[in-house]
Structure formats: structure tokens, C-alpha cells
Design a protein that fits this description.
- By secondary structure, this protein is an alpha/beta fold.
- It has three domains: 8-117, Cobalt-precorrin-4 Transmethylase, domain 1 (3-Layer(aba) Sandwich); 120-227, Methyltransferase, Cobalt-precorrin-4 Transmethylase, Domain 2 (2-Layer Sandwich); 234-277.
- Helix content is 44%, strand content 18%.
- It contains eleven helices and ten strands.
- The chain has helices at residues 24-32, 41-50, 65-77, 98-106, 119-127, 144-154, 170-181, 205-214, 232-249, 254-265, 269-277; strands at residues 9-12, 35-38, 57-59, 82-85, 111-114, 134-139, 160-166, 186-191, 199-204, 222-227.
- The chain is elongated, with a radius of gyration of 23 Å.
- The termini are far apart.
- It binds S-adenosylmethionine (SAM).
- S-adenosylmethionine is lined by residues 16-17, 86, 88-90, 93-95, 118-120, 164-166, 190, 192-195, 222-224.
Length: 278
């Protein structure tokens, strides 16, 4: 690469595990810019030291991004080039950076991507699920009610669904997916990608939840969860379930009506009850 274009923002992907997944171009940019804005400087320093990069670091996280963005844009307008990195993978993908990039573009600063690892795309590339169209949902809400409501809203989504999840909540989230979408929905749990304990499990949700529940090793680390999109069968079943549910509701309390409509049509009970509450 020729010299760094002055006054630009370089948005640089770093590894999601395996250090060798950083690109040659990323290393060159990180070594040449005036400043690296990093989500957590303590986290990024060992990676940069490993590659003998001595560029000064500055913290840019969700709590100071708004303030820092203005200052960094001013520095770029004055001619300095800055790189943005996050703790892992591609900045802005469930990570800080959106405000900075938006402010930089609004000020006419050139933003240049240096692509590389992204856990969602790495998982999709080995999941064996339809990948021509997909939906990235990031993290589900932390609170159970909001999480289930989000899953209910996605119930009929025909495209492959991709979620991020941490070890604290992986089992809870999988259990909610099972409750809302039913045991037959195909799922993939991609754990610790590019790291020592990488595993990629493909099973219907019912079996996957049981597997993770009974194997504590499968609850450790970082996760991408992929769900097959709703097929035409599932859509038809849900529509029929909703029709029967509405008829039964005229005579029964909603919980009872949902239970019976689910038993009659095979539609997931939670989806029917949720559709009535919405
Ligand atoms: N910006 C990152 C990217 O490009 O993938 C994502 C950052 S987000 C804060 C962290 C989440 O990404 C983790 O909780 C996990 O869901 C997912 N993730 C990151 N590294 C992973 C890995 N090696 N294996 C599986 N999932 C990973």
C-alpha cells in the first residue's frame, strides 16, 4: 500500500480469535496512522504489541463516543489519519463506531474500510444454512419478556436469522427460541470460532437446547446462533393457528385458547398468545 491518505478514517477489522486472521493491509494501516481509536485500549494493546505496532491508542467506547467523535473529526479535518478498531472483528457490528463514522462522513472525511473477520459471517460460512439472504439481529434483549417479544416478531421471517450471544445468556436465549419457534426449527450454534475450543453444532432446536443444557462446556465462550428461516409449512401452520385461536377466543380465556389452537394446528402456542397480546 502506498502511504496513508491524510485526514481519513480507516475502519479496520481485527481477529475474532485467531491472531493470524488480521490482514496484511490492516497491519500496514494500523502502523501508519497517527492514532488508533480502540473500544478498550487494554484489550487491544496485546494484539498491537504482538505485531510490534506502536501507534498511540485512544479509548472510544459507547459512553464517550459522542464527545470523542467531534474531537476526532476535527483532527482528521486538520489532516491526521485515524484508525478505528473494536475489541474483536469488524467495528460497528454490535460494537461502537456508528456515531464516529456518521460524524466523519457528515464532515466530508473519507471513511475507508479495511475488511476482515466478523463472527456472524464466519458462522454463516460454515453453518450450511441458506446464505443468499439473511437477517442479522445482533444480541437479543436481556430481559425475558422483551426477548420473547422480539422472537415472536421474527417468527415468520423466511430468511436465515443470525444472533450474537454471550455465555451468561446462551441457554436462556436458546430456551426462549425453543418456546417461541418450536422444537423442529433447524439451528446452528457456532462457538469460539477460530479459537481452541471451536465447535459448530447443527440440530433441531429441541435437541440443541437439550445438548447445551446437559453439557456445560457448550455454555462457555462466545456464540453465534443461526436459525433457519420459517418455511412455507411453518407460515401456513401459524396462519391456521391464528385463525383457530381467534375462533376459540370467543369462548375461552386467551391462554386456554392458545393451548388448544396449538394442539389442533401444530402452531407454537407462544406465538399465538403473543399475537393476541400485540
Ligand atoms: N464486532 C464483532 C464482529 O465483527 O463479529 C462482534 C462484537 S460483539 C460485542 C461480541 C459477540 O460477537 C460475542 O458475544 C459473540 O456473540 C460474537 N463473537 C465474537 N467472537 C466470536 C467467536 N470467536 N466465536 C463466536 N462468536 C463470536
Amino acid at each position: 500500500m502506498s502511504s496513508i491518505q491524510s485526514g481519513s478514517l480507516w475502519v479496520v477489522a481485527t481477529p475474532i480469535g485467531h491472531r493470524d486472521d488480521i490482514s496484511a493491509r490492516a497491519l500496514e494501516v494500523l502502523a501508519q496512522v497517527a492514532l488508533i481509536a480502540a473500544e478498550d485500549t487494554r484489550h487491544s494493546r496485546p494484539l498491537l504489541q504482538h505485531f510490534r505496532i506502536e501507534t498511540p491508542l485512544l479509548a472510544l467506547h459507547e459512553h464517550n463516543e459522542q464527545d470523542q467523535a467531534e474531537k476526532l473529526v476535527a483532527r482528521m479535518l486538520a489532516g491526521e489519519s485515524i484508525a478505528l478498531i473494536s475489541d474483536a472483528g469488524t467495528p460497528l457490528i454490535s460494537d461502537p463506531g456508528f456515531r464516529l463514522v456518521r460524524a466523519a462522513r457528515a464532515a466530508g472525511v473519507r471513511c475507508i474500510p479495511v475488511p476482515g473477520a466478523c463472527a456472524a459471517i464466519a458462522a454463516l460460512s460454515v453453518a450450511g444454512m441458506p446464505s443468499d439472504r439473511f437477517v442479522f439481529e445482533g444480541f437479543l434483549p436481556a430481559k425475558a419478556a422483551a426477548r420473547r417479544a422480539r422472537l415472536q416478531a421474527l417468527q415468520s421471517e423466511p430468511r436465515t436469522l443470525i444472533f450474537y450471544e454471550s455465555s451468561h445468556r446462551v441457554l436462556e436465549s436458546l430456551a426462549d427460541m425453543l418456546a417461541v419457534l418450536g422444537p423442529q426449527r433447524e439451528a446452528v450454534l457456532a462457538r469460539e470460532l477460530t479459537k481452541l475450543f471451536e465447535t459448530v453444532l447443527s440440530q433441531p432446536l429441541g435437541e440443541l437446547v437439550e445438548r447445551v443444557r446437559t453439557d456445560p462446556d457448550q455454555q462457555r465462550g462466545e456464540f453465534v446462533i443461526l436459525l433457519a428461516g420459517a418455511g412455507e409449512d411453518a407460515d401456513a401452520k401459524l396462519a391456521e393457528g391464528q385463525r383457530v385461536f381467534q375462533l376459540l377466543r370467543e369462548a375461552l380465556p386467551p391462554a386456554k385458547a392458545a393451548k388448544l389452537a396449538a394442539a389442533i394446528t401444530g402452531a407454537p402456542r407462544k406465538a399465538l398468545y403473543g399475537s393476541d397480546e400485540a
